[in-house]
Amino acid sequence: VLEKIKEIETEMARTQKNKATEYHLGQLKAKLAKLRTQLLEPAKGPGGEGVGFDVAKYGHGRVALIGFPSVGKSTLLSTLTGTDSEAAAYEFTTLTCIPGVIHYNDSKIQLLDLPGIIEGASEGKGRGRQVIAVAKSSDLVVMVLDASKHESDNHRNILTRELEACGLRLNKSPPQIYFTRKKAGGITFNSTVPLTKLDEKLVNQILHEYKIHHCELLFREDADVDGLIDVIEGNRKFIRCLYVYNKADIVSLEEVDELQRQPYSVCISCYLHLGLDYLLESMWDAMGLVRVYTKKVGHKPDFGEPVILSADRGGTTVEHFCNQLHRDVSKSLNYAAVWGTSSKHYPQRCGAVHVLQDEDVVQIVKNKKAQADNSELRGRFRNQSDEPKRIADRVKKAALKT
Predict the structure, then answer these.
(1) Bridge partners for 190 per DSSP
(2) What is the pLDDT confidence band of residue 383, given thresholds at 50, 70 and 90?
(3) Tens of pLDDT, residues 297-347
């Protein structure tokens, strides 16, 4: 499989990009994606299970540190979490996955220090596939780079290429393409926007490469060949990524300024503890975590321990907030009184679909039936009796034995 991938990549590099060759290039891209998917599948046969990094999920979010060897991943983990991760002056000091926990804004964020990956990691070099598999299960990827080598070694592009080869898409949103396979009826092709990068002939060629002859396709955006292949494959993970340039204390201020102005970039120095607060803030914003405080009727809000919600893990609506408290609360919800930036006035009565924002205060009001069915009131204090409403529904007692 690796040889076939190499052949297709060399052919794509040789082929000129113009109108005449776009169909040929599209077919090659589809073949390449199919082969890469085969490469990611576990080997069939009598061989034992592969050894991965088994780390249990903990906290409200998971962040994976990815980068080349000796860029300061272990030092960053030790600085932010206080967990001891071995750091030394030689490469590949870390050989397994070391977890730590960041306590920030009343939340717990799990930080994973992974072994350094090298070029060719997507093909399995240097345990690269296990490292990338852990990154797939995280909510945010922090790519640690060396600020002193950013011009000579293009580490950022190499790492992005390796992650994309394994089905990770960094800082991209899923393509707005509706795709369903059918048993009959041929290929139905529609678009709500004018397509400039694809046409029907190219789409049919790509579908033919995947042996798909009956399906429905609807383009809601001007997507390219890669976007269509991602939708057909269906195993892509779209994830946020922060590019963290460590060792910023050994480069000039002009270089730091240039790096900091790039999108999703943060410059830090673990040695001098520079920029770590801004890094934590950027991680919080990138993960989209939301703190929601609870309030009882007639009491002051409880600002002690918030409920942490996130869009990646469930959602940030009032319904998800209720499910975090107890699964029965959302069934008996009448309305929620909300104070904070998500409400138009204080308090605003909101339903289950209202989207909450950071540091909102929520008071849950149950409906009358739920209050009446309150099991805390017993005996003659209960509002409703246990007896049936109608006489016809009463169950006759069995006759006494004599």
Answers:
(1) 218
(2) low
(3) 888 998 888 999 998 888 899 999 999 998 888 888 999 999 999 999 988
Asked whether 85 and 94 are in contact (CB, 8 A), the reply is: yes
Residue bearing tokens 């999703």: 264
pLDDT for position 292: 93
Strand partners, 101: 110
Determine what percent of the chain is predicted with pLDDT higher than 70.
85
- Alpha carbon distances (Å) from 193 to 23, 176, 188: 21, 11, 16
Rounded Cα–Cα distance for residues 230 and 240 (Å): 17
SS3 of the chain: helix, strand, coil, percent, to 5 = 35, 25, 45
- H/E segment holding residue 108: strand 107-113
147 Cβ contact partners less than 8 Å away, ≥ 6 residues apart: 245, 246, 247, 248, 250, 251, 255, 256, 259, 267
- Beta bridge mates, 349: 337
Which residues sit opposite 315 in a β-bridge?
Answer: 310
Of the candidates 108, 107, 59, 60, the one whose C-alpha atom is nearest the C-alpha of residue 306 is 107
Q: State the chain's mean pLDDT as an integer.
A: 83
Distance CA 302, CA 162 (A): 46
Strands 168-170 and 237-246 turn out to be parallel
Predicted confidence (pLDDT) per residue in 247-290, tens digit: 888 888 998 898 889 999 999 998 888 899 999 999 999 999 99
**CA dihedral defined by 238, 242, 246, 251, rounded to 10 degrees?**
120
Q: Could you give the CA distance from residue 114 to residue 130 in angstroms, rounded to a whole number? A: 10
Considering only CA atoms, which of 249, 325, 284 is closest in space to residue 108? 284
